[in-house]
Amino acid sequence: MSSVVSQWSPLPPYYCWQVLIFLLYLSNVVSGQIRYSIPEEMKKGSLIGNVAQDLGLDLKRLRAGRARIVTGESIQYTELKTDKGILVVSERIDREQLCGDVTPCSFSFEMILENPMELHRVTVEIIDVNDHAPAFPNKGIHFEISESATVGSRFLLESAEDNDVGLNALQNYILNPNDNFILKQHANPDGSKYAEMFLQKPLDREEHPFLSLKLIAVDGGDPQRSGTVNIEITVLDVNDNAPVFNQSVYRAAVVENGPKGTYITTVNASDADRDTNGQITYSFSKLKGSIADIFVIDQNSGIISVSGQIDFEKDKKYEVRVEAKDQGGLTDSSKVVIEVIDVNDNAPVINVMSFSSPVSEDAPPGTTIAIINVKDADSERNGQITCSIDTNLPFKIKSSLTNYYNLITDSIFDREAVPEYNITITATDSGSPPLSSARTLHLRISDVNDNAPLFDKGPYFAYVTENNSPGMSIFTVSARDSDWNQNARISYLLEDTQISGSPVSSYISINSENGVLHAVRSFDYEQIKQLKLEVKAQDGGSPPLSSNVSFGSCSCRNVFRTEQKCL
């Protein structure tokens, strides 16, 4: 972010009042943060919170400041009722659709007010409702297990899915009582549960060639929900040894955006049996969501590689379970943890949330003219953003809330010198190499009536022949004004003076628009030999500014000439 050091120097007297305003001006944008918690599935129009009350704002301020919700996350779910100062639900909110497994589930947005500018961040947390029961991906689970499987052999079971979170999510598995198997449950680092069957009593194919069990998955909601799947086991003849992985956990890393076929790691299991009973095939256990489209495992070699799009901004780490199975139906399982390495592949994005143009040329330093939001989808240094502007411009950019910047004035403007500015804001991340983006704002400076009209010459003098015709043009005065529009519109008038006891207007008139002086009467040299008067040029500002010039004329016999001064 650019840094500009201000050096104070004495100001001309006519700027003193502007400095006084600056000392009294509190130009920093007011900012605040509020947080609400609501359950999912609330009806449209349901109250989220009283924004006006919680921010200490009255309804008149909300309307006058054109309070509105600006770009944020999932703003379609909320609506600001400025007439009541409340925030309400505008669309059905499904926590599972909005956040998936992420907890806590929330979205944030900003509310902006103008004149003066205020920026407030609002966060809405969505509380889970137990509206999903655990469900298994398939109607049944099938195993082929040799009767020679040893006590303690493990059999990984397909996991149920529950889209709810917290206590409402899947909490427990229950296996119906039986003589041969017991159930053991485990938790992944992300909190999800999975289960394995352990053989506690040898199988006897001759007595029970088929076994049918029931697995129940239950959540912790109130009321409790559950899902059921049947486990069908075919008992095979003699396969003495189950496969065994050489590692209980495999760890690997892959760069995001890696092309299809990129090697990740190799898992390996061994089986002490011979021939077909010792032949091992590898597979993933049930993969959740999009993971099934991202990774592939070679069933013969155990090589895991990339098969889809890997995006660090979506998932920073993946955990999958792999299974080794011999031809006799015995299995072993292991876990693979894949870390995703971030690549700086996203440039910062600049959003202009509010921009005030034109700005008055008498705006004091520190006036906020724009609120900027910047975002970068990358992480860590790749997502750290610095904003800057050209240091030669009379502006500076200042951080406010996270990812928000205020563009403020840094000196006093002079519209007559510079009537407009092109301000380019550059956002650069800290990646290697860094990526950047730019946005240009066109700011116009509005005029303040700070220049009085100036006459081209002065004083003026004219010779007029006597016995002239009334209404005759005598002379033209001209003034100019450096201001703009109405502030530069000049009107000419005569100051009230007396000539031989009579008002000057009984002798001379002036066209207020073009400054042409006319004789009101016919002059008589024997009565009046010289006229002296003051002409005022006044602009159309509020309040108006003016300047005067002296004008003199002599009545002459048979003479007519004009000059800047009397010879």
TrEMBL record:
Membrane topology category: Single-pass type I membrane protein
Q: Which InterPro entries match?
A: Cadherin-like_dom (IPR002126), Cadherin-like_sf (IPR015919), Cadherin_CS (IPR020894), Cadherin_N (IPR013164), Protocadherin/Cadherin-CA (IPR050174)
- Residues forming the Cadherin domain are 80-136, 137-245, 246-350, 351-455, 456-551
Q: Where in this chain does the entry annotate a coiled-coil region?
A: none
* Entry's Gene Ontology BP terms: anatomical structure morphogenesis; homophilic cell adhesion via plasma membrane adhesion molecules
Q: Which SUPFAM superfamilies match?
A: Cadherin-like
Keywords recorded for this protein, A-Z: Calcium, Cell adhesion, Cell membrane, Glycoprotein, Membrane, Repeat, Signal, Transmembrane, Transmembrane helix
Against PROSITE patterns, the record matches this protein to:
CADHERIN_1, CADHERIN_2
Entry GO MF terms: calcium ion binding
Compartments annotated for it: namely:
Cell membrane
Record has Cell division as a keyword: no
**What is its biological role?**
Potential calcium-dependent cell-adhesion protein. May be involved in the establishment and maintenance of specific neuronal connections in the brain.
Its recorded name reads Cadherin domain-containing protein
Q: Which organism is it from?
A: Oncorhynchus mykiss
